[in-house]
Write a structure and sequence with these properties.
With about 260 residues, the protein is an alpha+beta fold. The protein folds into two domains: about 100 residues, tt1808, chain A; about 140 residues, no CATH class. It has seven helices and 15 strands. The strands form three sheets. Strands 9-10-11-12-13-14-15 form a seven-stranded antiparallel beta sheet. A six-stranded mixed beta sheet has the order 1-4-5-6-7-8, with helices on one face. A hairpin with a 2-residue loop joins strand 12 and strand 13. The longest helix is centred in the middle third of the chain and has 15 residues. It is elongated. The protein starts with a helix and ends with a helix.
Length: about 260
């Protein structure tokens, strides 16, 4: 969300604060807001609360942020769980539900989404093999900024190794009536860019495929890791499905799925 406010909506990082304490009537201890965004005169413009993906956004959540705003007095309020966003306008001590993102927070038309833009968002590594840069840039645009599709969703994977970078925003592809494929690009701590794919069958995650795009372009035969009920395997995805960062990602959705379903 912070990256969006800075890179897409054009807000200065200096006008965003986190974990600001608020003292509410009848509360024995102070609470903290998640995020406050200020206008150019440093008046509270947006109060945002970020919930976990599994938290249902309901009237109770709206009442909570409304209570916080008794002290903050921001013009706009927003609650999100990474999948759904709800916007409100504060007017005359009441909250008015908004059907769309306020203009002040809409994506600017002049945003230049080149490779370094996606690096700054954490979806690619600055040290990525130059042969993969164009493909990564085009794929990130389709995954994360495609107005023809619904927004990507944030999926959290607690307890997974940090080098796998699984907790991320994913685009969901419907493969068939039983299978869906979640796809994400991630910058790894080791300086490479990963293409992570998670296969879901009837609401259960059954396989993970992680392609190290740097190893792929360096012709390392163990460029891909497959984890499933059969265990962990190391594959050469270039050899398996002729994937080489030349054709669009959508060309390989079925092929990736077939590899992940193999016994």
């Amino acid at each position: 969300m912070v990256e969006y406010l800075i890179l897409e909506a054009g807000f200065s990082r200096n006008r965003i604060t986190f974990e600001s304490p608020v003292s509410l009537p009848r509360d024995k201890s102070s609470s903290r807001t998640d995020l406050i965004c200020y206008d150019k005169d440093f008046r509270p413009l947006l109060l945002a609360e970020v919930k976990r993906q599994d938290v249902k956004l309901d009237e109770k959540v709206a009442l909570q942020i409304g209570r916080y705003n008794q002290e903050v007095k921001a013009h706009y309020l927003m609650v999100t769980n990474g999948r759904v966003d709800y916007w409100f306008r504060h007017r005359a001590e009441s909250l008015i539900t908004l059907d769309e993102t306020p203009e002040e927070f809409s994506s600017r038309d002049d945003v230049y989404r080149d490779f370094m833009y996606w690096v700054s968002r954490g979806f690619a590594s600055q040290d990525t093999n130059q042969k993969a840069v164009d493909w990564i840039t085009q794929t990130a645009q389709k995954l994360y900024h495609n107005p023809k599709h619904s927004p990507p969703i944030y999926i959290n994977f607690d307890g997974t190794p940090p080098e796998m970078v699984l907790s991320n925003y994913y685009r969901i592809f419907d493969v068939d009536s039983a299978h869906r494929l979640a796809v994400a690009l991630s910058a790894s701590p080791k300086g490479s860019t990963l293409l992570n794919l998670i296969l879901n069958r009837t609401n259960e995650n059954v396989a993970l495929l992680s392609v190290d795009l740097d190893k792929l372009m360096d012709l390392n035969p163990e460029n891909t890791t497959l984890q499933s009920q059969a265990g962990t395997q190391f594959l050469n995805i270039r050899k398996e499905i002729d994937f080489n960062c030349e054709r669009p990602l959508t060309h390989f959705i079925q092929a990736f799925t077939d590899v992940m379903l193999r016994d």
